[in-house]
Amino acid sequence: MIFSSGPNGKAPWPISFGFLAVGVYYFAVRPFERRWMIRREFAKRPDKDSEVEWQADGDKVLARSILWHAEMSWQAFTKLVRTPTGIMLYLTERQYHWIPRQAFASDAEYERFIDLAKSKIQNFYHVA
Fold it and tell me: For residues 43 and 15, what is the distance between their CA atoms, to the nearest angstrom?
């Protein structure tokens, strides 16, 4: 807690308490609140739990679900992260598309997609 005295020798307790309350909220409560809010908003989405079909070639990536369709050039992706259970294609530092490994028909198709993506996206990371 911040301790100091004002010009007349009295400690400004309300200000100190206010700083403490804001700090506790921001560092202890806010992360949990944000996760709860994101989950709550996602549960309301009309396309939650829907399947997305991905197609890729040397020029572009197509993604399609029951409610939307997107066509993106490979330059739209800033980073590729390979994990044991799938791939993350990053559009920004915090926004990515998740493609699970089980979505591919075979391991060979999965590896072929990764090779293509690695040739098109500069930043590649492999997380074991």
Answer: 39
